[in-house]
Amino acid sequence: MLFDRVKPLDQILATAERKGLVRQLGWFQLMMLGIGAIIGTGIFVLTSVAAEKAGPGMMYSFIIAGAVCALTALVYAEIASMVPVSGSAYTYSYAVLGEIIAWMVGWALILEYAVAAGAVAVGWSGYANGFLTSVGWGLPAPLLTGPYDPIVQPDGTTISGSFNLIAFLISLFVTWLLVIGTSKSAKFTAVLVVVKIVALTTFVIIAMPAVNGANFVPMMPNGWGTPLSGIGVLGASASIFFAYVGFDAVSTAAEETKDPQRNVPIGLIGSLAVCTVFYLLVAYAAVGAVGAQPGGALALSKEPLAFVLRELGHGTIGNWVAAAAIIALPSVVLMMIYGQTRILFTMARDGLLPKMLANVHPRFHTPHTVTIITGAAVSLFAALFPVGALADISNSGTLFAFFIVALGVMLLRVRQPERKRAFKVPFIWVVGPLAMAGCALLFVSLGLYTIKLFLAWAVIGLIVYFAYSRQRSHLHNGTEHES
């Protein structure tokens, strides 16, 4: 039977105990990891993308994307408190919907984490290269971008890149941090979170008094948008969803968390709540201060927040906000690679990927093999490809995984109502369907091209599963004790 391989929750927990990771993170560290993963390229860079698609209506886009994530975070908190192990949506799907669905979720999460890590590294490199050029240390043009990301000159001509050196190096540095230890990575991330919060708070304080109601007219120049169009408020919601992605990375740290039944829900919901408040304030201040019509200056800016401050006559502070992005965005790369390695680690522990990916370093107690391999792949990916086309394809994998998790939690309520739930979603039969509907709406709003790419990736995943993973599954072969 194709869907008969379901891994019981008790067996998943037992596997984690036999070959698990050291529990060393508390709720505050989890919240810092979550905020570190969420606040990044989305708010510092994609604000201009949202303005181009929706104009001032991107305010609604932030609300829609945030609402979908809030519903999903509640669902994640319930299942993460029940199954405090690595693997996130992959593990949850294995326990409820079976191996093939779990594999497809894990495969889709590669789009969320690895693709997103590369995208953020490329976005960061744009800020970093701009800074180096301004102080006279600019790199040669071929080392500024990858071969598929030409540089547009002020006169309209383009320069072809060959290898994005800065994106490559930051990805390798983050990989090294993850290899030497999770607690060290969490402390590093906490420092960068403070930098980002200070930068966004400064932006809001300066831009808010300059808000002018006239800048919100017309509110929705492209309307709400239609499915598959990729524009309008819904199209911008699908893109700006990238700004919220990362809160679920908290659940990938469950196996390394002290008292996960209590701390994981706090980390999930707390980090998303903090970021949502900041996003709405920042979006309102940016739109109200300088306007956000499609084709306007904000929509075309590569550093929209710094641009707003400069337009308001605060050039120095604008430069400092840009500097904050340079300092802080590596924390997002860190959390994306972190989440990816924990999912692949768990898939290897289940026999679906080569066993060596589940090796744990004897000194650092981290899954060093899979971390090095993932980091090397992300580094090369960031060195070669542009940021522009990556956010939507990353979102497609995320939305698929979120949809499956919401379905799984509802099925568990029916199948195992007696199982202890340290955190229980209120009104699950309202929250769950709304979360699924929201994910589906944003998915079809990504645009036809992105959906085709996702489906192609899914087909490749099925080929890998049937050609390699299905026959080597520990659950199928009865070799779970060897994992």
What would your notes on this structure say?
- This protein is mainly alpha-helical and 483 residues long.
- It has a single domain, classed as Amino acid/polyamine transporter I (Up-down Bundle), CATH 1.20.1740.
- Helix content is 67%, strand content 1%.
- The protein contains 21 helices and two strands.
- Strands 1-2 form a two-stranded antiparallel ribbon.
- A hairpin with a 5-residue loop joins β1 (151-152) and β2 (158-159).
Question: What's a quick, concise take on this entry?
Answer:
Helix content is 67%, strand content 1%.
Q: Gap between N and C termini, in Å?
A: 24 Å
Give the C-alpha Rg: 22 Å
| Unreliable sequence segments | none
> Which second-level CATH architecture applies?
Up-down Bundle
Order of helices and strands: HHHHHHHEEHHHHHHHHHHHHHH
CATH superfamily: Amino acid/polyamine transporter I
